[in-house]
Amino acid sequence: xxxxxxxxxxxxxxxxxxxxxxxxxxxxxxxxxxxxxxxxxxxxxxxxxxxxxxxxxxxxxxxxxxxxxxxxxxxxxxxxxxxxxxxxxxxxxxxxxxxxxxxxxxxxxxxxxxxxxxxxxxxxxxxxxxxxxxxxxxxxxxxxxxxxxxxxxxxxxxxxxxxxxxxxxxxxxxxxxxxxxxxxxxxxxxxxxxxxxxxxxxxxxxx
Amino acid sequence: xxxxxxxxxxxxxxxxxxxxxxxxxxxxxxxxxxxxxxxxxxxxxxxxxxxxxxxxxxxxxxxxxxxxxxxxxxxxxxxxxxxxxxxxxxxxxxxxxxxxxxxxxxxxxxxxxxxxxxxxxxxxxxxxxxxxxxxxxxxxxxxxxxxxxxxxxxxxxxxxxxxxxxxxxxxxxxxxxxxxxxxxxxxxxxxxxxxxxxxxxxxxxxxxxxxxxxxxxxxxxxxxxxxxxxxxxxxxxxxxxxxxxxxxxxxxxxxxxxxxxxxxxxxxxxxxxxxxxxxxxxxxxxxxxxxxxxxxxxxxxxxxxxxxxxxxxxxxxxxxxxxxxxxxxxxxxxxxxxxxxxxxxxxxxxxxxxxxxxxxxxxxxxxxxxxxxxxxxxxxxxxxxxxxxxxxxxxxxxxxxxxxxxxxxxxxxxxxxxxxxxxxxxxxxxxxxxxxx
Lengths: 207, 437
Description:
The complex is a heterodimer.
Chain A: H1 3-13, E1 18-21, E2 24-27, H2 29-38, H3 49-75, H4 78-90, H5 97-115, H6 123-141, H7 154-168, H8 175-181, H9 184-198
Antiparallel strand pairs in A: 1-2
Chain B: H1 17-29, H2 49-54, E1 125-130, H3 141-153, E2 157-162, E3 175-177, E4 183-184, H4 187-196, H5 207-234, H6 236-250, H7 255-274, H8 283-305, H9 318-332, H10 339-345, H11 348-361, H12 377-409, H13 425-436
Parallel strand pairs in B: 1-2
Antiparallel strand pairs in B: 1-3, 3-4
């Protein structure tokens, strides 16, 4: 999706991703999962209580660590901000609004980082945290095809989404994707899902 | 990231240690994935890996074990061999010898009873935290977590329970003053430091369990923490009747006037930033959703705990410290509007878990009378001089204000021209009389 289109879409829905069903718009992963569940399809039905607890916990871990790290990298790392994020975020707006809004968003994100204790972290520390998170995920995955053995669940979807994005988005420095690539089972996991579920789209960007 | 060092003998000092540590090595080596350990540092906690790698000081820390039930500590589990060449029986697992005196931490010379020799590390670590209330060792979430962890690992901390955050070395509570004088005030960092000092409650966890720890810590912080903050600090009834009351009574004059309010504002800001993505227009909706998620989180914790004594078997880990501190606060405080509390009370295994830990690790604190004022003699007499002094001060201040006003507004004037004349009102009075006549 081109930069402009993406920004445009996120403006309408407020948040990507979203699905449009009839005249309802449901956005973000959590509500979408609930919505689909209400329609009778759920991936985690086969799990017992303890596993469901673990699944939720790991989803929170991913949200907590990976998402925050991605946010940090996008908005608090000066190199990335200057080269990529500012331009991308401000692209649908005319000058000078693009600069103003970009700065405003950056300020907001920085404030949030400070509130959760990430304000004083250096890039290296953030990368260490990502490494920890990946290590945890890798250990949980082990040699299984999916996190809860044979069947994919919401956790698999979430992890795939994040890792795929990290692996395929070109940033100013590749350290983040390098961290992920250190874990071969996570790489294999992403490839497997990509091939299995997205193969009709043809191009495999994970090589 | 292994903040806790596994028993890699090259690391733990010179080789004479090797053979002696063997038995223990074997014991731990047997646990499946002891090598590629996952970090058990909780989430957005800064794991200070560089610090870990840099720490080459083979300190030997003997923690005071005799009081703790033996079941909780596997043989020699958390004792680390430093450079000291103790005699074999001092290392014997079962009897916790008083030969290893509780605060002996310096690398001892040869001899069975090292004694408190002043080595490099003379000062013990000191922990400053909020004092106890509501039947708990501390009323603050972070302080409680750190205290519990310290109790789990038997770290020899000197605990100062204070009610005035300005008296702590960093200005906030909890704060740990390490033996080198460095002050750490972020709870996760405090625990990391304790781990570095080889008081590691997560040592025996497998890799998978370490990963689970990270995950559940994230769950706690995302789902339960906002609601706890809301319950204690934002919910009006709770705040006024419980939280603010305790803090205002506990803090010394004049902090008790403005500090609770300031803390509330800080917590509110933190909460807003935590839940910042939600639009603020729908307060009620947001609140309901938050509480719903918190209830779910409690249920999940209950399911994960099952009927075990601790989350990872029979020995407590850092996850237990955090879960305990979150739950016990919710359980013990007498909250007027406690919807979450009611839900928690319904989860019996969690309640049993909390009482178990409380009775095991904080037996005497549990019997503490809540507010510090209630203990009869001591604090009263302490309060007396303050109160008298405050009274005198306020009377003097009042007098000074009155006199000052009188002087400035001309009701009373002091005439300096003729020192012989009687000063003050009499002079004026006479002048007026003269005028009237």
